[in-house]
Design goal:
- The chain is α+β, with helices and mostly antiparallel strands.
- A six-stranded antiparallel β-sheet has the order 1-2-3-4-5-6, covered by helices on one side.
Length: 123
């Protein structure tokens, strides 16, 4: 598989291809980018309803993306048809990713503060 292509598997039900997750140990777009997605492609109407998360890495690697090596998470929504797809930022996904980043960044501090508060309450 070259770096400009990706493969996925899914199931066909009522002529719609459904994919619940698309993760690969190989980079879908290159060593500095990881792509995962889920959604449906209706083979009869050619309608698209897909969400894709692109992870931009700080350092190119052949291994999996880690929180320490993630520069940005870019969630997008793909709708419309196969002939005329519409790609737009997933604003809800962006907000969730940003919130999760902040929670992860302050997780240790928050846990320590919670433990301190619980100790004070239980005294």
């Amino acid at each position: 598989m070259n770096q400009n292509s990706a493969t996925t598997t899914g199931s066909i039900h009522s002529m719609a291809l459904r994919r619940s997750s698309s993760r690969s140990s190989r980079p879908a777009a290159g060593p500095g980018l990881r792509v995962a997605g889920a959604g449906t492609v209706n083979l009869v109407s050619q309608a698209l309803d897909y969400k894709v998360n692109a992870t931009v890495l700080k350092q190119p690697t052949s291994g999996p993306a880690t929180a320490a090596n993630t520069l940005a998470l870019v969630p997008v929504t793909i709708t419309g048809s196969l002939a005329s797809p519409k790609v737009s930022p997933d604003l809800q996904g962006i907000a969730k990713a940003r919130l999760q980043q902040e929670l992860d960044k302050h997780k240790g501090d928050l846990q320590q503060k919670l433990q301190d508060q619980l100790k004070n309450i239980l005294k």
